[in-house]
Amino acid sequence: MSCSNALLQKLQSLKSFRIHTGNINSFAELKLKRFKNSAEELSACLDLQFGKLDQAVDIGPNGTVLLSECLHDIMYERDDLKISLKVFLTEFDFGQITNAIEATLDQLKTDSIEQIIVAFPEMEGESDEDEKLWRKNLISLWKNIESLVDSGKVVSAGVADLQLSQLEKLYDEADVKPCVNHFNIDGCCVVPPELQSFAREHDIQLLTHNDPSPFPVKEVFSSVCEHRCDSQPCGFGLVWAARYTVWVQRRSIMASKGYIIQFNEQK
């Protein structure tokens, strides 16, 4: 039996598990490729890792599977590093955020994160009522996010893909103002001028990204398992996904990047 199949059989017996890629910057095969988006990068990473899975890979604490030991090869002092974490939510659930943060802190062996960026669930409909409910859930969740900043566990917090009206509403309601709007310009060539103006006036950094929305993590994982293994974990649903990047401050060097993905048994 291959290592991949043996690992997946063990996962089948769990009610939940986490997949952690480790530092994907350690793989030259990935660094030399250009990917259409981050989902394509994650797919290539998991395919590579499952294809080279070590016999020693096992399920660790909290049901975490560390696919690569390339994790603690960052040769810098902690004060020289900036950790940024983007969390992709499947629900307006603060527990998903805290779980993603705790998992990242545990894996990176640190006690704080400089920046968190939250990608919120998609709106379920297109009516005015759907928009109002989505904004209400957003603001309610943000109040909880503010507590992470107040506690010092997170230094600053940002958002992903908010349109101007959504960002204005959040900014007006927030005590801890969003410092970043991570914006996808897929389908257009620039960030809308009105959004640029608002961000500039309120000291909100606009950063572009190539993350699909919603992020197809479950599909990526299932595809890799089907390709690399005789079977795949069935009956599991994606809870949250997170991507951390570790930057060397003042030098613009990315020292580490990895994905952590949480799956739970579907009932």
From TrEMBL:
Every NADP-dependent oxidoreductase domain range: 67-207
A GO molecular-function annotation: enzyme regulator activity
Classification via InterPro entries: Gclm (IPR032963), NAD(P)_OxRdtase_dom_sf (IPR036812), NADP_OxRdtase_dom (IPR023210)
Family annotation (Gene3D superfamilies): NADP-dependent oxidoreductase domain
Pfam families: Aldo_ket_red
SUPFAM superfamilies hit by this protein: NAD(P)-linked oxidoreductase
Gene Ontology BP annotations: glutathione biosynthetic process
Cellular component GO terms, alphabetical: glutamate-cysteine ligase complex
Pathway note: Sulfur metabolism; glutathione biosynthesis; glutathione from L-cysteine and L-glutamate: step 1/2
Entry keyword set: Glutathione biosynthesis
Subunit composition and interactions: Heterodimer of a catalytic heavy chain and a regulatory light chain.
PANTHER family listed in its UniProt record: GLUTAMATE CYSTEINE LIGASE REGULATORY SUBUNIT (PTHR13295), GLUTAMATE--CYSTEINE LIGASE REGULATORY SUBUNIT (PTHR13295:SF4)
Record family assignment: Belongs to the aldo/keto reductase family. Glutamate--cysteine ligase light chain subfamily.
Protein name as annotated: GCS light chain
Species of origin: Steinernema hermaphroditum
